Amino acid sequence: MIWVSWRQQRTETLIALGLLILLAALLVPTGIQMADAYHHDGLSACLGQNTSSACHLAVESFTSRFEQLGGLIGWFNLLPGLIGVLLAAPFLLEFEQGTYRLAWTQSITRGRWITTRLALTTAAALFAAGALTLLMTWWRTPLDHFHARLETSVFDFEGSVVLGYTLFALGLALAIGVIWRRTAPAVVTAFAGYVAARLFVDSWLRQRYEPALTATWPNTGRFAGPDLTHAWVLSEEPTNRLGHVVNLPFGLVGTCSRAISNHVRTISPACLAKHGAGYSHAVYQPASRFWTFQGIETAIYGGTALTLILLAAWWTHQRTA
After folding, report:
1. Percent of the chain, pLDDT > 70?
2. Which residues pair with 266 in a beta bridge?
3. How far is the first Cα of the chain from the last one, in angstroms, to the nearest whole number?
4. What was the pLDDT predicted at 1?
5. Is residue 214 scored above 90 in pLDDT?
6. How far is Cα 115 from Cα 320, in angstroms, rounded to an integer?
7. Close Cβ partners of 273 (under 8 Å, ≥ 6 residues apart)
8. How far apart are CA 119 and CA 176, in angstroms?
9. Model confidence over 159-171: pLDDT tens digits?
10. Cβ atoms 80, 169 nearer than 8 A
11. N- or C-end of the chain: fewer Cβ atoms within 10 A?
């Protein structure tokens, strides 16, 4: 039974593996270069808030050099959804074509057939999700020393959430497909649902998992105020000493800033203070909540995925003739 299930699943599994190999071919060369540059330039000495201007420039140069793939990596958020619906397709095709009836007449019970097929499909999805997580986490390791892991397109690829994303897409495709019994429309609808869910969580729900923290501090220099280097800053605005937001005149930030390198500009606190913006106010999620948020989001997607997979199994067992 396991061998037959693998034969029916192997094409889609190999396609998913091919997607991961293509991703590795893109990321591994730059990942090696990035790790070498991080150690060669001694950037580990620049960790922390109160670092020198030379460190600040070195970090900015390093970031601008290797974050050129940042826009492209955002599109990789589609991969867990593609892998999930792709791996669901063989199971759905059996219902569309009616070939499941042959298996059920070969002394194989419905329960055993359903359990074996869904277990193999789920295992393949988890393996692909785990490989994607390990690859992206390895690639981003040097950048994570200087940037917030809670930000979108960083949070989305590290920790345990990719497992939840992939299983959610798989479960959604299975549930829609066994009810609809049309593979192509079910897969397309499930992928659209996956994208919609991801956009909703990324743009609105995630920042509300726990109440955000706030801080107000005087603009007395680059190192004033809390260390927000690794925090997820939801908003940061100039205020007066009473904490009221100051609407700065158009172009004032440019007037009060000066270049300290080709890529870095600094804003004069004294200049802003003259226009009533002597303080800054930030709303943020601290870096210490990374694993808490990972657990919450994995539970949301994973719990929904489990419900959908069980629904698909029940519908197949009870409602399929």
Report:
1. 83
2. 258
3. 21
4. 53
5. yes
6. 15
7. 219
8. 18
9. 999 999 999 999 9
10. yes
11. C
Residue predicted with more confidence, 95 or 100: 95
59 vs 38: CA distance, rounded Å = 9
Amino acid at 212: A
Give 257's strand partners. 267
Q: Which of 312, 260, 320 is nearest to 58 (CA)?
A: 260
pTM, two decimals, is 0.89
What's the rounded Cα separation, in Å, for the pair 223 and 36?
Answer: 29
Provide the residue type at 311 as one letter: L
Give dist(CA 198, CA 166) in Å, integer.
11
CB 271 within 8 A of CB 255: yes
How does 77-111 read in b/e, with b if 16+ C-beta sit within 10 Å?
Answer: bebbbbbbbbbbbbbbbbbbeeebeebeeeeeeee
Q: Give ∠ CA 19-21-22 in degrees, rounded to 5.
A: 65
Unique residue bearing structure tokens 């909540």? 289
Contact criterion met (CB below 8 Å) for 196 and 114: no
The token pair that represents 299 in the structure block: 């539970």
Taking phi first (over 0 means left), then psi (-120 to 50 degrees means alpha), and beta for anything else, what does residue 19 get?
alpha
Q: Has residue 55 got a pLDDT over 70?
A: yes
Q: Quick check: 298 and 257 in contact, CB under 8 A?
A: no
pLDDT band of 309, cuts 50, 70, 90: very high
Domain residue ranges of the chain, discontinuous segments joined by +: 2-40+56-210+294-319, 213-287
Q: How far is Cα 118 from Cα 313, in angstroms, rounded to an integer?
A: 8
Looking from the CA of 159 toward its CB, the CA atoms found within 13 Å total 23
Q: Which helix (H) or strand (E) holds 258?
A: strand 257-259
- Per-residue pLDDT, 5: 55
